[in-house]
Every structure is written in C-alpha cells, then in structure tokens.
Design goal:
about 50% helix, alpha/beta, 2 domains, five-stranded parallel sheet, globular, 7 strands, single chain, two-stranded antiparallel ribbon, Rossmann fold
Length: about 200
C-alpha cells in the first residue's frame, strides 16, 4: 500500500471515502461487519451474493463463469464467504486495487503470486479476520479476572491490537521485501522460534 493509502498504524482515516467496495457474503458475520465499517467511512459498498441462500447456491453465484463476478471493477474487494474463490482462472482479471480477505483462505497460493505481481495490495486472512479470535481472548480474560468490559472498551482494545498488528506485519513485509502474507508468516515463525529458544520445547 502506497504512502497515500496507509501510515505506520494502518490505513489513513478517510481514505475509503468515495471508494467503491464489493463485499461477498455480507448478510451476517464478518462480511456484514465489513460492509458496515466501510460504509461508515463513506465508501460506496456493493453486496455481491448475500449469504441468505444455501451455501451451494452462494458458491455457484460467486463462482459463476469461473468467478468473473469477483472481477468487477472496484477499489476494494472483500471476499467474505468462501475459500478458494480467487484462483489462477480469475486472478489476472481482478480489477480491485486492494483485497481484504475476510473469509478463510479465499485466495489460492498461485493466485496470490499473480496478484502480487499485478501490484494488488492483499490484506491476508491471518490479519484481516483476526478480530474474532482476539475478542474470544478478551472473553477469556474477562472470565478469568471477573471483568465486565463495555462494548466500547472491547472495541477500543480491539482497534489498538489490530492497528498494532497491521503495522508490525507491514514492517515485516517491507523489511523482507515481500507482500503482507509472507510478512505475517515471517513474523509469526520468528515469534515462535524466539519463544522456543527462550522457554525450550517443554516449559
């Protein structure tokens, strides 16, 4: 992401105002939340294949014509419903400048390399949809300590962690001259290696 699109802490507030955003599978869950979040920032959001139909019908709609629906012109594409929807068959047709992987594994490895060569800025699933497991951790902390955080407290803590995580992954990617997915993997493996060296295999 260019300097005009982000800073060290994540996307610049107001960047998405007036931008076109396509979200797949947005009737509930992360797709719905993503659509609301982009809309609140002033983006023009289009919902593609709402998740009201059975999964088989949803998959057929998204993948119709080799997944060409995902190749519609937009600034940001948010695949939020299915895995393996961006493949070698359609990666070269993707017109979005930014892809935010709200679903788990929506991009195949070979397609990922095609997008990288095209200069598409992909925010990988390991980062983009980490909010859910983070809030699950918050629930565990509250149960353990007898806390009862308000919704605003949870959201504030979540935003702080997500922004910090984005900055760390972006820094890792820049350091190793790679894209965000490899930057995230490098960061994660490095942390595991450091913890293993410090604590040993059997603490």
């Amino acid at each position: 992401m260019s300097e005009s699109r982000s800073d060290a802490k994540g996307p610049v507030r107001g960047y998405f105002k007036g931008k076109s955003v396509i979200v797949t599978g947005a009737s509930s869950g992360i797709g719905y939340d993503a659509a609301l979040a982009f809309g609140e920032q002033g983006a023009n959001v289009t919902l593609l294949a709402r998740r009201t139909a059975p999964m088989e019908e949803l998959a057929a709609k998204i993948m119709k014509g080799g997944g060409k629906a995902l190749a519609l012109k937009c600034d940001v594409l948010v695949p939020a419903a299915l895995e393996n929807v961006i493949t070698l068959a359609n990666a070269d047709q993707i017109k979005a400048r930014v892809i935010v992987e709200a679903a788990n594994g929506p991009t195949t490895p070979h397609a990922d390399e095609v997008l990288h060569r095209k200069g598409v800025y992909v925010v990988p699933d390991i980062l983009a949809n980490a909010g859910g497991v983070t809030v699950s951790y918050f629930e565990w902390v509250q149960n353990q300590q007898g806390y009862a955080w308000t919704e605003s407290e949870v959201n504030a803590r979540l935003e702080a962690i997500m922004r910090r995580s984005f900055a760390e992954v972006a820094t890792s990617a820049q350091k190793h001259r790679t894209h965000l997915r490899h930057g995230a993997y490098t960061l994660a493996v490095g942390r595991v290696a450091e913890a293993t060296a410090t604590r040993g295999l059997f603490p």
